[in-house]
Amino acid sequence: MLNKLKSEITHFKDQTHNFKILTLTNLIYSIVLPVIDIFVAAYVMRSSNDPTKVVVYQLTIYTGIPITFLINGWLLNKFPIKVLYSLGMVLSGVSMMIMMSLKTLDITGVGIAGIVMGMSFGFYWANRDFLALAITNDKNRNYYYGLETFFYTIIAVVIPVMIGWFIEFSANTGDAKLAYKIVTGIVFVITILASIMCFKGKFNNPTSKKFIYFKFDPYWYRLMFLAVLKGLVQGFLVTAPAMLIMLLLGKEGALGTAQSVGAIFAAILMYIIGRKTTPEHRIYVFGAGLVLFTIAALINGVLFNGTGVILFMLFLLLAKPLLDLAYFPIQFSVIDILTKKEKRSEFAYILNHEAGLYIGRLSGAGTFLILAYTFSNEIALRYAIIIVAVLQLSSYWVAKGIIRKGKIMNGEFANHTPTENQIDAKVAEAAI
C-alpha cells in the first residue's frame, strides 16, 4: 500500500511545473468552494425563507459569468493571465462580504452580491479552463480531472461538516450571522493564499488577440448543444441541495453531514477512474453520471422528505464528479481539433462555450421559477429537477456523436495538412 502511494506521488512529481502549480492552486481554492456553492445559498434561505430568492441569486451569478468571460478576453490583452485568475478567486470572498453586510436580504442586495459572485466565477473559470487546456493533453486529462476531483471530494468530507456544525452551534447560542461572517473572513484569507500559489506558475496568455467569432465549424455546434444540456442542471447541482435540506431538515449541521456522507468513497473512486481510464472510456463515465443524477432526481421527487434528501445527496456525490470528469476532456478534445482546423485562439471557443452553458442555466432556473410561481415552491423543488434530469439524459447520445466525429476528424488531420489558402479562408471568418 505504501509503495503504491509512493508510486502515485512520483507520478504527480513527473508532471510539468505548471501542471503541479495549477493543481495546487485549485486544491487550495477548493477549500472555499463548498462554502461558496452551498452555504451562501443556505444563508439566503435561512435569512429570507424564500427559495425564489435563492434562484434569483443564482440567476444573477449566471448573468455575471458570461459578461465577465467577455471582459476577461479583452483584459488578457493587457494583463497576465495569473492576475485575472487570482482576481476571480479573491472576488468570491468580496461577494460574500457584500452579502453579509446587507441588513435586509432584498432582491436588489441579493442581486448585487450575485453579480459580483458571477464576476468571480467568470474570471476564475475562464482562465482556469484555458490554463487546464494549455497544460494538459488528451492523454493526461483524465488523470488531471481525476486528481482534482479526488482532492475536491476529500475536502468535501471535512469542510461542510466543520462549517455546518459551527454555524448550527452558533445559531443555538443566538448568533448564526456572526458565524457566517467569521466563515467569510476565513474564505477571504484562503483566496489570498490560492492567489499566492498561482503566481508561482509560468503561465502564458493566449497568443491570438481575436476571441469573438460568430461562425464556427458545424462540429462546434454539437458541443454547444451538449453545453446547453449541461447548463440545464448546473444550477440545481449548486442550489438544490441547500434549498432541500434547509426546507426539509432545517439545519446547516445536517447540510454539512449530508455533504460529507460517502464522500471518501467517491473521492477514491474518482481518482481511480481518472488514473486508469483512457479517452475511449469517457462516454461510459459520462453515461454513468447521467444515470446516477436521474436516479437522484427521481428519489427526491418520489420521497420528498429527509430520507429522500440524504439519498439525493449520496447519489449526487457520485454523479457530479463523474459528469465533470468526462465532460471537460470531451470539451477540450473538440477545442484541440478546431483550433488546428480553424486557426483560432483556444479562448475563442472557451468564451463561446460559456454562452451555451448560460442558455441552459437560464432554461433550468426558468423551469424552477415557472413551477414555483404557477404552483408552489414545493412543486418546483420536487419536479423541476426531474424534468431537467430526464432532458439531460439525451446528452449521452450527443456526447457519443461528438466523440465519434472527433475520431474521424483526428484521422483527417493525420492524413491531410490544410493548404495556405484554406487556412486563410478560415481565418477570414473572424468577427469584431
3D structure, described in words:
It is a single chain. By secondary structure, this protein is mostly helical. The model is unreliable at 417-432 (pLDDT under 50). 50% of the residues are buried. It has a single domain, classed as MFS general substrate transporter like domains (Growth Hormone, Chain: A). The protein starts with a helix and ends in a 5-residue tail after the last helix. It has 17 helices and no strands.
Summarize the structure.
The chain is mostly helical and 432 residues long. The protein has one domain (18-201, 211-427): MFS general substrate transporter like domains (Growth Hormone, Chain: A).
Give the total of beta strands. 0
User: What is the radius of gyration computed over CA atoms, rounded to a whole number of angstroms?
Assistant: 21 Å
The number of helical runs is 17
Order of helices and strands: HHHHHHHHHHHHHHHHH
Keywords:
disordered C terminus, 83% helix, transmembrane transporter activity, mainly alpha, Growth Hormone, Chain: A, membrane, 17 helices, 432 residues, transmembrane, MFS, YQGE family putative transporter, globular
Give a topology summary.
Elements lengths: L1 H12 L3 H14 L2 H16 L2 H25 L5 H21 L5 H29 L5 H32 L3 H23 L19 H31 L3 H9 L2 H14 L5 H22 L2 H37 L3 H29 L2 H16 L2 H21 L4 H8 L5
Helix pairs in contact: 2-7, 2-8, 3-4, 3-9, 4-6, 4-14, 5-6, 5-8, 6-14, 7-8, 7-10, 7-11, 7-13, 9-13, 9-14, 9-15, 9-16, 11-13, 12-13, 12-15, 12-16, 13-16, 14-15
